[in-house]
């Protein structure tokens, strides 16, 4: 459980060990197969009269807690590398360190007021691509990351991270 993990990583010795394991995964260009397995549990949605349609059920995917911690640490490592090398478009704000909803509001206000100054009308289109990632062509993503110059070790680690994933149904 997260409460247990949080109590463990408050100790600097333990957090250093977690960092060492994370760095070893990247240096070895390998994501442990134990962390590639998830468990799916399907539960019924509350307050429904009948349960004769798939829409009335909610699948929940459970991941290994320690694997989630490693994944979070590796994600921050990758984010640092991506920002450092200007791989992320300046308008990409969601989910990045040191960026917030206030930043988005300020940028959007600036764009709108700049257009008003030119006597133009502005509209915005906002969409969430969270569900886009699972359907992303992993080979194409690897080629793009290679083309922009992502570090070879990180690129190979990321390729390994994407393959061999399994979901068990409970």
Explain what the structure shows.
- The protein has one domain (2-169).
- It is 49% helix and 11% strand.
- The protein has six helices and three strands.
- The protein has helices at 2-9, 12-28, 65-84, 101-117, 138-147, 152-162, and strands spanning 37-44, 57-62, 166-169.
- Helix 2 (12-28) crosses helix 6 (152-162) and helix 5 runs antiparallel to helix 6.
- The mean pLDDT is 79.
Q: Helical content, roughly?
A: 40-55%
Major beta sheet, strand line-up? 2-1-3
Number of helices: 6
Record field, number of beta strands: 3
User: β content, as a range?
Assistant: 5-15%
Residue runs with pLDDT of under 50 for 5 or more positions: none
Structural class: mainly alpha
Number of domains: 1
Return Rg in Å: 21 Å
**Outline:** extended
Sketch the topology as an H/E string, one letter per element.
HHEEHHHHE
N- and C-termini, Cα separation: 19 Å
Roughly what is the average pLDDT, rounded to an integer?
A: 79
* Main pleated-sheet profile: 3 strands, mixed
Précis, in short:
The chain has 170 residues and is mainly alpha-helical.
What would the keywords be for this entry?
170 residues; mainly alpha; three-stranded mixed beta sheet; 6 helices; 3 strands; 49% helix; 11% strand; extended
Write the layout of secondary structure elements.
Blueprint: H1 2-9, H2 12-28, E1 37-44, E2 57-62, H3 65-84, H4 101-117, H5 138-147, H6 152-162, E3 166-169
Parallel strand pairs: 1-3
Antiparallel strand pairs: 1-2
Helix pairs in contact: 2-6, 5-6
């Amino acid at each position: 459980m997260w409460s247990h993990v949080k109590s463990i990583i408050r100790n600097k010795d333990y957090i250093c060990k977690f960092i060492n394991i994370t760095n070893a995964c990247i240096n070895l260009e390998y994501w442990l197969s134990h962390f590639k397995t998830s468990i799916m549990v399907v539960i019924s949605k509350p307050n429904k009269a009948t349960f004769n349609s798939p829409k009335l059920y909610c699948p929940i995917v459970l991941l290994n807690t320690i694997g989630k911690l490693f994944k979070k640490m590796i994600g921050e490592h990758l984010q640092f590398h991506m920002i450092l090398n200007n791989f992320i478009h300046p308008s990409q704000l969601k989910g990045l360190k040191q960026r917030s909803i206030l930043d988005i509001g300020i940028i959007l206000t600036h764009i709108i007021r700049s257009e008003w100054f030119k006597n133009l009308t502005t509209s915005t289109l906002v969409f969430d691509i969270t569900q886009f990632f699972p359907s992303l062509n992993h080979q194409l993503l690897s080629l793009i990351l290679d083309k922009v110059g992502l570090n070879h070790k990180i690129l190979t680690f990321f390729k390994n991270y994407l393959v061999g994933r399994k979901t068990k149904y409970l």
